[in-house]
Design a protein that fits this description.
Helices cover 25% and strands 31% of the residues. It is of the alpha+beta class. It folds into 2 domains: 126 residues, 2-Layer Sandwich (Ribosomal Protein S5, domain 2); 176 residues, 2-Layer Sandwich (lpxc deacetylase, domain 1). Strands 11, 12, 13, 14, 15, 18 and 19 form a 7-stranded mixed β-sheet that branches. The protein has a 5-stranded mixed β-sheet with strand order 2-3-9-4-5, with helices on one face. It is globular and about 55 Å long. The two termini are 20 Å apart.
Length: 310
């Protein structure tokens, strides 16, 4: 891992795209702009007076029904998880995210278009070191047969398991050691999915108004309705892992720890992040400094151990 991996990153230039919101059905323009060191990821509703800003951290989560929604005062921005996963996947720390509507556009239902957007803007390495959230002791939450936990680890590792008791969405599991390469190859293109039997119920509840076969996998009782089929044989669990990575970004810094999620979702992810942040003994925020990089062989296991002495 090079020294650049331990320095904060932003974009080299602004970049924009436009698309429909999955749940709102609104046409929305999304603009990503470079931001200075220690700015973090901050969303702005530019269609509202004063363009109110909403930091992408757990304390600003206001809804987790089928997507993660951030809010501050009257301003809300929904379905932020795929964009946050892409920014996390490329190690981007600082961005001003401008949205002129209530929801981030869904695009093709994966993080792939956001990955392309960031790469087309270019990545600028800043002088300031990154900060990391290091998990120091296990924290586990259970809700019936659902479970989410974070435990100490020498890297970011995610284990995800799902079971929808459906012949086309059976029990699936994925374990992944995080890296930009692994994210790009294994997770980024995995799309959100839903069941045809739920579509009318969701739309009557004001959700999924922008959903289509162009931005989601749709499954009926016996088949996948998308004519192109799946991008991965286990695309369902890969997308759930992508969602978990996006929600993990709400720590506000890259995480060094082992995330395990079983039949989980946005609500349990958010509860887990909030529970860890509420317990000062469960984590430490540490800053990667050049003197540590020079002293260490820059292997993440050694680096993670050295952080505890800072």
């Amino acid at each position: 891992m090079s020294d650049a991996s331990f320095h904060q990153r932003t974009l080299d230039r602004p970049v924009a795209t436009r698309g429909v919101g999955l749940h709102s059905g609104a046409q929305v323009t999304l603009t990503l702009r470079p931001a200075p060191a220690d700015h973090g990821i901050v969303f702005h509703r530019v269609d509202l007076p004063g363009s109110p800003g909403i930091p992408a951290t757990a304390s600003f989560v206001v809804d987790t029904a089928l997507a993660t929604t951030l809010g501050r005062g009257e301003a809300r921005i929904g379905t932020v998880e795929h964009l946050l996963a892409a920014l996390s996947g490329l190690g981007i720390d600082n961005v001003r995210v401008e949205v002129d509507g209530p929801e981030v556009p869904i695009l093709d239902g994966s993080a792939g278009p956001f990955l392309y957007l960031v790469r087309s803007a270019g990545i600028r390495i800043l002088e300031e070191p990154k900060s990391f959230v290091v998990i120091k002791r296990p924290v586990t939450l259970r809700d019936g047969d659902r479970e989410a936990s974070l435990t100490p680890c020498d890297r970011l590792r995610i284990d995800c398991a799902i079971d929808f008791r459906h012949p086309l969405v059976p029990g699936q599991a994925l374990s992944i050691d995080f890296s930009t390469t692994a994210f790009t190859r294994e997770l980024a293109r995995a799309r959100t999915f839903g069941f045809l039997k739920d579509v009318e119920r969701l739309k009557s509840a004001g959700l999924a108004r922008g959903g289509s076969l162009e931005n989601a996998i749709v499954v009926d009782e016996f088949s996948i309705l998308n004519p192109e089929g799946l991008r991965y044989p286990d695309e369902f669990v890969r997308h759930k892992t992508l969602d978990a990575l996006g929600d993990l970004a709400l720590f506000g810094h890259p995480v060094i720890g082992h995330l395990r999620v079983t039949k989980s979702g946005h609500a349990l992810h958010h509860r887990l992040v909030s529970r860890v942040l509420a317990d000062a003994s469960a984590f430490a925020v540490v800053r990667a400094r050049r003197r540590e990089l020079e002293r260490l062989d820059v292997r993440l296991p050694d680096f993670a151990l050295a952080l505890e002495s800072l």
